[in-house]
Design goal:
alpha+beta; Inorganic polyphosphate kinase; NAD/diacylglycerol_kinase_sf; ATP-NAD_kinase_PpnK-typ_C; ATP-NAD_kinase_N
């Protein structure tokens, strides 16, 4: 007998909860904000809307289903199951933060603050939660398969991301490495830069687009469901020992970009989650390419 679906509600601490954790009481938090020209009322209002949204979504879970909740800070310790339907209640970025821990489970994005969030990934309102949960498990339910990017190190460490993966120095130093197509004979071009960014179509509205505009690239940005990635080297430095001939490109399905570390330490993280990063040292290599899994976003 198969298990009933489980609705997993993903959320993050509100700004108000973070203020209370830092200052201890509502009054102290209000004083802190007022000293900086802000009112705590707007912060409490957003907190109340978020908590109400969580209650509304929890109430919409079918009675025969199981349910669970997980906070963003605990995602790396939460075990998602194949039968889960993941409901992200919050901002677009929270969907990206969650995506790297999933393996094909359907995701429903619920916007807790319409008009304030762009709503690119959290496209729905609380009132739609019940219908979307049922649709997520129904045959023929509509969903978009959003392309993801992965980094696989030579020691089998693996990292997934929905928007982009960044490889670079942990601070403001220069990263040194060799870069070239995966499978190419030879060590690749020696480079010194502030890092490499490999992004998807979903990430084409953020950091990837900034680099694309800065370079005046003639390569079109990928669409979210398109199996194509763009990559850019940030601030490559030309010198007698390092080159700048490979600073941008695109990757299709089956193609890869290989980076071999030639400095003490390089970090690899996805979608801004620096707390969950890979660390590579001298001589290690990592391959970047389209991930074998995608984010199944219920529409």
């Amino acid at each position: 007998m198969s298990l009933a679906p489980r609705a997993v509600l993903v959320h993050r601490r509100t700004e108000y909860e973070e203020l209370l954790a830092r200052h201890g009481t509502h009054g102290q938090a209000a004083f802190f904000l007022s000293s900086r020209g802000r009112s705590i009322d707007e912060v409490v209002g957003r907190h109340d809307r978020t908590r109400q949204a969580l209650r509304d979504v929890a109430a919409a879970v079918p009675l025969t289903w199981r349910s669970s909740r997980v906070e963003r800070a605990d995602l790396d310790r939460f075990l998602f199951a194949p039968e889960d339907v993941v409901v992200v209640v919050g901002q677009d970025g929270l969907v990206a933060n969650t995506a790297k821990y999933l393996r094909g489970q359907p995701v429903v994005g619920i916007d807790t603050d319409p008009g304030r969030n762009p709503g690119v990934l959290v496209r729905h309102r609380c009132a739609d939660a019940g219908r979307l949960l049922r649709a997520a498990t129904a045959a023929g339910g509509r969903a978009e398969e959003l392309t993801m990017v992965e980094a696989v190190a030579d020691d089998a460490q693996r990292l997934l991301a929905l928007n982009e993966i960044y490889l670079g120095p942990p601070g403001h130093q220069t990263a040194r490495y060799r870069l070239g197509p995966d499978g190419e004979r030879g060590p690749g071009e020696a480079q010194a830069s502030s890092g490499v960014l490999v992004g998807t179509g979903t990430g084409a509205t953020g950091w990837l687009r900034s680099l694309w505009l800065e370079r005046g690239s003639t390569t079109g940005l990928p669409a979210p469901c398109e199996e194509r990635l763009l990559w850019f080297v940030r601030e490559a430095w030309p010198s007698p020992a390092t080159g700048t001939s490979r600073v941008t490109g695109e990757l299709g399905r089956g193609q890869g970009l290989r980076l071999t570390v030639e400095s003490d330490r390089i970090v690899v993280f996805g979608d801004g989650m620096e707390s969950d990063a890979l660390e590579l040292t001298w001589g290690q290599s990592v391959r970047l390419g389209i991930a074998g899994t995608s984010l199944r976003l219920v529409t």
